[in-house]
Amino acid sequence: MSIHELRPKAGDTTEKITINLGVVDLGQIDLLVQEGFYSNRTDLIRTAIRNQLATHAEVIRETVARKTFVLGLQHYTRRDLEAVQAAGQRLQIQVLGLASIATDVPPELALATIDSIVVLGALHASAAVKAVLADRIR
Q: C or N: which end of the chain has fewer Cβ atoms within 10 Å?
């Protein structure tokens, strides 16, 4: 006999948070609950959060795509950064592992094309590139 869980338990998929609200906001929430618009405070707050996330869904999607960590090795050549510059874009480098910037990348090109670097692991780049990007490396 096999048993299949149809729905994960609430504790497995949710996280408890604490928020502070002004008494007027809290009173308005209680009024909407009392009038039957929501079953309880949590229902209203959860709905409000979902509505805000839906409103910003495109921004969230773009940001996740743009700022996703690369797992392993990410190498940036001079040609890569020149292409980024030609496209009028800037990079937010996020790597879990090793990020490397080619030794022939001039500091000015790195400065013009890299907004931020987050590396959980190691960063290999020339001393000059590291120096101009020092305030962008986290």
A: N
**Structure letter (DSSP) for residue 137:** B
Helices (H), the chain: 10-13, 23-34, 41-55, 57-66, 78-86, 107-113, 127-132
Q: In this structure, what are the phi and psi dihedrals at residue 97, rounded to the nearest 5 degrees?
A: 140, -115
Spans of all domains in the chain: 23-56, 68-136
d(CA 73, CA 138): 18
Q: Between the CA of residue 130 and those of 45, 79, 83, 100, 120, what are the distances in Å? A: 45, 18, 20, 11, 16
CB distance 104 to 129 below 8 Å: no
Q: How far apart, in whole angstroms, are the C-alpha atoms of residue 64 and residue 120?
A: 17
Q: Residue 35 corresponds to which amino acid? A: E
0.90 exceeded by the pTM?
no
Give how far Cα 102 sits from Cα of 49, 88, 119, 125, Å.
Answer: 43, 20, 16, 7
Whether the Cβ atoms of residue 124 and residue 103 lie closer than 8 Å to each other: no
